[in-house]
Write a structure and sequence with these properties.
Layout lengths: L1 H12 L5 E5 L4 E6 L6 E6 L6 H8 L7 H4 L5 E7 L4 E8 L10 E11 L5 E7 L12 E2 L5 E5 L5
Parallel strand pairs: 6-8
Antiparallel strand pairs: 1-2, 2-3, 4-5, 5-6, 6-7, 7-9
């Protein structure tokens, strides 16, 4: 979990190579080739007219959280094991897509939540196997490289 958090911090601090691919008035999405796997990294950025704490309540990875209510790509989120107050093993499921051509997925990750001195909040995760969460029937087991969300306060 700590390695995933550090990798996300490195992505955030390295502006090189990001190329814009989509943009609306609210969100800008960029990509760049990954140095870890044969594919691309993606990041979405936007400024929301809300306090960092209210935004964090919507995105933080906790059981019973708000993410399953607003994010159509997250069907369920459960904590398999709480390792500490800030680290947990979690299972996230996604619904089928494209008229059920794409099967539902499940992801088992170690997740860490951090808050930095400047008020920035981070959730970082990466794939892990856990004996209490073997692959489930009717789901394709997905694999996450280091991924997560930053909630960064901005003036005003």
């Amino acid at each position: 979990a700590e390695a995933a958090a550090e990798q996300l911090r490195l992505y955030r601090r390295d502006p090189d190579g990001w190329r814009g691919c989509r943009s609306t008035g609210e969100v800008a999405v960029s990509w760049r080739p990954s140095a870890e796997f044969a594919g691309n990294l993606y990041k979405g950025e936007g400024i929301l007219p809300a306090s960092p704490q209210n935004v964090w309540e919507c995105i933080k990875p906790v059981a019973g959280g708000l993410r399953t209510k607003w994010d159509q790509n997250v069907k369920d989120f459960e904590v398999i094991e709480a390792v500490s107050d800030t680290v947990s093993i979690c299972r996230t499921t996604t619904p089928s897509a494209c008229m059920r051509i794409i099967s539902p997925r499940e992801f088992v990750d170690v997740v860490v939540m951090k808050q930095y001195e400047d008020g920035t909040m981070l959730s970082a995760a990466t794939n892990v196997e856990h004996p209490l969460c073997p692959p489930q029937p009717n789901f394709v087991r997905g694999f996450n490289y280091p991924c997560g969300c930053f909630c960064i306060p901005v003036p005003g």
